[in-house]
Amino acid sequence: MSWDNNGLRAGFVVPPMPSAPPRAPADGLRAAAVALLNLCGLGLGYALVRRWGLMALCWVATAILLFVALPADPDGVPGGAVVTYLIFLGLAAVHGAVVGLRTRLVWPPRAWVAGALGVVLLAVPAGGVVLYDGARDEATEAMLIDRLERADKLVQTAGKQPFATAQADYRRSLAVYQGLRNDHPGSRAAARVPDRLKTYYATVGSSYARKNYCDAIAPLKYLRTVPRTMGKQALGALSTWPDDRLATSLYECASQSLSGGEADWTTHFSDLLSTFPRSASAAKVEPAVKAEVDKAVRQVDGGDPCAAVQRLDSLGTQVAALPGEQAGVAAALDKDADRANTTADSGTYACGVDQYKDGNFDEAITTMDDFVKNNPHHKNRARAQKIAIAAEIAQTVPAAGKRLPTTASGGSISVTVKNDSPDDITVMYTGPVTGSFPLKACGSCTSYSLSSTLVPGFTPCHDNGKNYPQRTIQLPTGTTYFVHKARSGTGKSPASDTAKLRSGYIYTECAYTTSFGY
After folding, report:
1. What pTM value is reported for the model?
2. Which CATH code, of 1.10.286, 2.60.40, 2.60.120, 2.130.10, is assigned to 408-512?
3. Which residue from 126, 299, 457, 480 could staple onto 431, CB 3.0 to 4.6 Å apart?
4. 483 pairs with which residues across the strands?
5. What is the dihedral sign for C-alpha 167, 169, 175, 181?
6. Cβ of 374: how many Cβ atoms within 10 Å?
7. Nearest alpha carbon to residue 24 among 87, 110, 82, 90
């Protein structure tokens, strides 16, 4: 060994220090362990190979995912965020495997221990997924319960409003109940729907519970349509809940309208007889109708026979229209209708008498004419004809209507009525007896001028050269009112005469026309 002039030993050189530890031999198990540890989302694989920045990057990515995912939402994590995060974990695993292939681990000393730890730590993201799914399910349940409660409040609010106003809200809440049962059958909210439907039915049908039967009809009819939406199996006993209540409501409401003289009772009774023909309520329809007919029949002899007749006319038509076949009461209803119509026809006489007594002579004429036409064999037909005559006379001579005519006829005094006019006329008279007869026109007679009738000594029906149509009648003593009127033509007013007949005299009545009438 030689030394140089500086005293250093010749032949030895000190190498420079390396900048980094020498790379470890390639180890596939170590690479897999680092990749597995990175898959847990916390970058632990990077921690074991001293890549602290990359580990921090993994923490940031996981934190962003947690920020997006929490709190758990029924719709879950947005798909784009999940895909992005999975791609990031995949890249972290691949990169970690590349780094770990030739980099020694800080800890643990053996690669298989790190691999085992990586496998165990994979439970962290798997457990997180399970926990998140549970949280999302709970969020879904909370959302469904909230939806259920909002529907319940909608029903509660609707129950305080008239059905016509609330019906739309009832339909919306029912759609919610149906959606919970059909779309989320295993949810806690769906399990509560049956109880909610009981409350729903009770709320919609609350008018019935308050005995507001007319108001209850529409909502109860609506409830009978609910099985089309929910299904009979889902509703159970509720599917028939409205039936008896609706039948009762139809009967009670119709009965109230019937006794009150309103017109809509026929609609409700018709619905009842058609929809629930074998119900206890349907069995009460015919007795109720019969009682109302009986009541109107009794009123014909009361203080307002015309109103009773009008009521019977309406009842006859309405009862005849009721569909009693399915309920087995068609024959009984027909009998009630016939009785109403028959009594109305015969009761027209009492109505005409009442109109005559009240001085409504024009109405009395129409009423008695109808009675005579519709009752050809009635015992009062002859008197009704006389009342119609007297009423027509009273239209011209009001004093003639102070007494109700009788069916008396004849008398001891002869009265001859002559027609000195060119028109066919009808002669009507009333007083102790009442009647009428026609007289043909006088062919050779003409109308008199008004001025000629004012001349002293004017005496019609005294031209011996004329053959006056005439008729002699027998009348009793007393005041008799005569009215003559043309049987055709217009602009001709009836003429009247009041005769006070006394025994021992022969009387002549003369009918003639002037240029202004009789």
Report:
1. 0.69
2. 2.60.40
3. 480
4. 428, 496
5. negative
6. 14
7. 110
